Amino acid sequence: MSISSTIKSIQDIMRKDVGVDGDAQRIGQLVWMFFLKIYDDKETEYELLDDDYRSPIPEPFRWRNWAANPEGMTGEDLLDFINNQLFPSLKDLTPAGNDKRGYVIRGVFEDAYNYMKSGHLMRQVINKIVEGLDFNKAQDRHLFGDLYEQILRDLQNAGNAGEYYTPRPVTQFMVDMVAPQLGEKIMDPACGTGGFLTCAIEYVRKRHVKTVEQEQQLQASIYGVEKKPLPHLLCTTNMILHGIDVPTNVRHDNTLSRPLRDYGPRDRVDVIVTNPPFGGMEEDGIENNFPRKYQTRETADLFMALIMHLLKHDTGRAAVVLPDGFLFGTDNAKVAIKTKLFSAFNVHTIIRMPGSVFSPYTSITTNILFFDHTGPTEETWFYRLDMPEGYKHFSKTKSMKSEHCDPIREWWNDRKEIIIADGDEKSRCYSVEDLIATDCNFDLCKFPKEDEEILPPAELLADYFKKRKALDHEIDKTLAEIQRILGINVNVDEL
Fold this sequence. Notes:
Structural class: alpha/beta
Strand order of the largest sheet: 3-2-1-4-5-7-6-8-10-9
CATH architecture of the largest domain: 3-Layer(aba) Sandwich
Order of helices and strands: HHHHHHHHHEHHEHEEHEHHEEEHEEHH
CATH superfamily of the largest domain: Vaccinia Virus protein VP39
């Protein structure tokens, strides 16, 4: 059974439970159970490699001792064990000595909850997990990406906007181009489920790690921060699966909540690869952590100001996914950030991505900015990645593949201006003077107008319903914000 099918069958069981309300709770329930299963699989590996290994989890609460037996605890006994023994113990776990693994476990369970009310249904879910996944198998381990992509898709369907899975071909391309080296500090300040960090780990390990000491050096060089508890839990799990045994440098926090001036030389990093949240607004007061000229509540803009501040001089380099709105926006904060970016950093390349790269999560058109801290920008290359032949748009069934980035890779090492016809610029180099003359409106190398695609009726209706749901969600958010500002509360149910 595929991971997607396993998750679906588990969620079908959970829907029968009166305690689980909606997809978001079902996913939260699923994730902490996956974590314990995956951690137990990893501990089997640790025990084979180290005869003296001792689990940070007390013996009664290790997955193998209460969950692995399909004929084990069930019903009220299982429910009582989870609610009154397992969760209290792991939430208050006191690590033994200097064992940092204990802190990781406790951090995972600080924001985890058991929503299920039926111990019998709980046993059915546990047995599905036991049957469906073995993360000591290389195949299942590699399929973890499919797992959290499925989870994020479900989160999006549950109305949790802003959780966008970055396709593996995009993360891989970005990491390949910034080429992190052993000993460099690598960071994602909005790491989500850890896709960029795992790509960076694999890149460095494959090319530069030959000894135990070098592996330890790599493990100490990976840094991530994630604001939301569920993606953070998934990221922690992902790190463990990718050999970061004690991911204490992956923190559950909001990097924007710390005043910019408080980030000192010790906090600076060599490499940043990230897809920061965009289209969202930060809570009141966050903007005050930044200099007045950068103050805005738009999340992507604040992250750009932070990224610039965190990059080391000379060695610092970044690859950042940003929406069109950042390139084209001419409000005061955006202009100030872009002016600083081009005057203090070398923005050598901007890749314009097709609109459906993040399908089915969003149709927002995005760009990848590549820059380093070696001095001011003199010229910037723009390159537009067109849809591959035979594709109108990317979708679940026709997703983006690694080879779709090959045209960029070929062009990257042999850069040429490409003018197709009628002024259609696929690639062009601009001087910084030309860019600044546009008042920082970088609407360059535009996508040509496409003929409208006629979809089959069922797909067309599904698309309309999806768009309506997303629009309703945004309207509800806006109305809630207006009510908060005005200090009123309109009960919609009474209208």
